[in-house]
């Protein structure tokens, strides 16, 4: 099924040339999860964060699919996946959804790439199935407690105000295309449309809002206990090769988060990208792809 044939139809046409991949779907309890599956060879699975979707990884997919099988997933409520309104959008649910997709695809010995919320979702799965992980690739994310979120992000999770800002006024996805990408020339009208088009109504922004509300500020937030458990299980992954590509100008996941990763994984290969922001792949894919290819091809 081509991108123009998915449920969203012609609304996706303006950026179809940027995202020229076949759309695939896996149904979980009546809800469709979208993913792309390109190329052949060792499997690389890429998980996006909030408020992006698999579109974020489009250049990595193009740059790696000649040698690898590249799978990029849209979490339920995101991208081209279904967006149910009465749904438990929590970290635990997203981990379970991803686990079921991985079982469906029968994937083992994968390279797992994670960004933003894709970090706790992917690493959450990996700590439960470490034998299925060959290598880890980390892009500006966290899978542990600690660190500070900016006030502008915390505000988006506040009762009433958060719903109006995020779902009503699109005050999270739309500003992100400019705030999270440091190289403004990257955000052409078509690229910006690609990021926000799946989130074009109050209802279609439901998962964006729920993600913000699930940020583990305190033990009262459902994700807090889940993330605490994930952090306790990180030693199960310490023997896995890890590549870290970090945008050093990220206003959200600052270098302090990078230092925490290094503390947990002191043998990781760390690549600090001085001029990249939170959307580190968008800012620096030309630098990331050759380095990542070399490290993947050198892996035993």
The number of helical segments is 11
The level of helicity is: 25-40%
Largest sheet: 8 strands, mixed
Mean pLDDT equals 90
- The helix-and-strand class reads alpha/beta
Rounded to an integer, what's the Rg over CA atoms?
Answer: 18 Å
The low-confidence runs, each spanning 5 or more residues with pLDDT under 50, are 1-10
Report on the architecture of this protein.
Mean pLDDT is 90; it is low at 1-10. Helix 1 (58-64) links the parallel strand 3 (43-47) and strand 4. Strands 1-2-4-3-5-6-7-8 form an eight-stranded mixed β-sheet, with helices on both faces. It has a single domain, classed as Alpha/Beta hydrolase fold, catalytic domain (Rossmann fold), CATH 3.40.50. It is an alpha/beta fold. It contains eleven helices and eight strands. Helix 5 runs antiparallel to helix 8 (206-213). The protein starts with 23 loop residues before the first strand and ends with a helix.
Keywords:
Rossmann fold; 300 residues; alpha/beta
Write the layout of secondary structure elements.
Layout: E1 24-28, E2 31-38, E3 43-47, H1 58-64, E4 69-73, H2 91-105, E5 110-116, H3 118-128, E6 133-141, H4 151-155, H5 161-168, H6 173-179, H7 189-196, H8 206-213, H9 222-232, E7 242-247, H10 255-264, E8 269-273, H11 280-298
Parallel strand pairs: 3-4, 3-5, 5-6, 6-7, 7-8
Antiparallel strand pairs: 1-2, 2-4
């Amino acid at each position: 099924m081509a991108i123009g044939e998915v449920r969203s139809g012609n609304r996706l046409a303006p950026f179809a040339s940027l995202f020229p991949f076949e759309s695939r779907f896996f149904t979980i309890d009546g809800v469709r999860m979208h993913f792309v599956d390109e190329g052949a060879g060792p499997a690389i699975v890429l998980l996006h964060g909030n408020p992006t979707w698999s579109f974020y990884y489009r250049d990595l997919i193009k740059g790696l699919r000649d040698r690898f099988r590249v799978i990029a997933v849209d979490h339920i409520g995101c991208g081209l996946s279904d967006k149910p309104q009465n749904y438990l959008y929590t970290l635990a649910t997203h981990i379970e959804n991803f686990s079921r997709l991985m079982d469906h695809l029968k994937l083992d010995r994968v390279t797992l790439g994670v960004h933003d919320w894709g970090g706790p979702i992917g690493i959450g799965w990996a700590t439960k199935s470490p034998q299925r992980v060959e290598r880890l690739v980390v892009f500006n994310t966290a899978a542990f407690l600690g660190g500070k979120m900016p006030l502008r992000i915390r505000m988006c999770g506040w009762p009433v105000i958060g719903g109006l800002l995020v779902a009503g006024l699109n005050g999270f996805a739309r500003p992100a295309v400019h705030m999270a990408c440091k190289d403004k020339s990257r955000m052409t009208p078509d690229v910006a449309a690609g990021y926000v088009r799946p989130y074009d109504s109050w209802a279609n922004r439901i998962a964006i809002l729920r993600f913000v509300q699930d940020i583990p500020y305190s033990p009262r937030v459902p994700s807090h206990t889940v993330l605490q458990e994930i952090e306790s299980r990180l030693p199960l992954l310490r023997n896995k090769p890890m590549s870290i590509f970090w945008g050093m100008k990220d206003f959200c996941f600052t270098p302090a988060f990078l230092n925490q990763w290094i503390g947990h994984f002191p043998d990781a290969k760390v690549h600090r990208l001085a001029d990249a922001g939170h959307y580190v792949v968008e800012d620096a894919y030309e630098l990331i792809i050759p380095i990542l290819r070399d490290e993947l091809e050198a892996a035993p």
